[in-house]
Specification:
The structure holds two protein chains of two kinds. Chain A is built from three helices and nine strands; from the N terminus they run βαβββαβββαββ. By secondary structure, chain A is of the alpha+beta class. The radius of gyration of chain B is 12 Å and the shape is globular. The chains are: A alpha+beta, B alpha+beta. Chain A binds chain B through residues 34, 50-53, 55-57, 59, 81, 92-93, 113, 116-125, 134-139, and chain B through 1, 3-5, 8, 41-43, 48, 51-53, 67, 69-75.
Chain lengths: 139, 75
């Protein structure tokens, strides 16, 4: 399995991510795109600020890739996460998975985003008109 | 190294905690909460040693890179 794992403050390019995993051997490509929503619990979001413990985040993302390699016949995996200040509608993360058949692509892609959200040391702060809060920080 | 909301609580991207020559992760967490009680109000926080999530019984050495990891929210 080939994996392409990156963290960067540059704007994410969905089409480029798809092109990177496309392969003649693969009949199914599944993509997850995480974008910045305009509101949370009824409050209008002004922007999100993403922060990463980069060296460890890359390690944890690589671990996700290793897990996927062991569980599904995936040929190519891409995980690109953006950091910095993002506006509503901006793309925060792209996960692209290519496999010979769609079952593995769907399952591995779901696994990747679900696990990323639990283990990868990246944090987002929601900024509202009247305040800000770190997502999931408080019970 | 301190990240996210923990960084705001501590007031800095890094913090120095005095421990004996050899300390466990559990001792570090206790000391952190003593000095920064607001940390106890978080849903949770983890400690990473050299980029790996640590269990409470793990020992921290002088040269280790230690990070305070508040609840993650990537993706």
């Amino acid at each position: 399995m080939i994996s392409d794992i990156q963290i960067s403050s540059a704007t994410l390019d969905i089409t480029s991510c798809i092109n990177r995993v496309m392969d003649p051997q693969c009949g199914g490509i599944d993509i997850f795109v995480g974008t910045v929503r305009n509101s949370t619990k009824g409050k209008a979001v002004v922007r999100l600020e993403f922060e990463a413990y980069e060296s460890m985040a890359l390690k944890e993302m690589q671990q996700i890739a290793n897990d996927i390699m062991g569980r599904w016949p995936v040929h190519k995996l891409l995980i690109h996460h953006r950091t910095g200040v993002l506006a509503v509608g901006d793309v925060a993360v792209v996960i692209a998975v290519a496999a010979a058949h769609r079952d593995a692509a769907f399952d591995a892609c779901r696994y990747a985003i679900d696990t990323l959200k639990q283990t990868v040391p990246i944090w987002k702060k929601e900024v509202f008109e009247d305040g800000e809060q770190w997502v999931a920080a408080h019970p | 190294m301190v990240f996210g909301i923990a960084r705001e609580i501590v007031g800095n991207g890094s913090v120095t905690i005095q421990v004996n020559d050899v300390a466990t992760v559990a001792q570090l967490k206790k000391e952190l909460i003593l000095q920064y009680p607001e940390l106890a109000g978080l849903a949770s926080f983890a400690i990473a040693v050299n980029g790996v999530y640590a269990t409470d019984d793990m020992i921290i050495k002088q040269a280790d890179e230690v990070a305070v990891i508040p609840p993650v929210s990537g993706g």
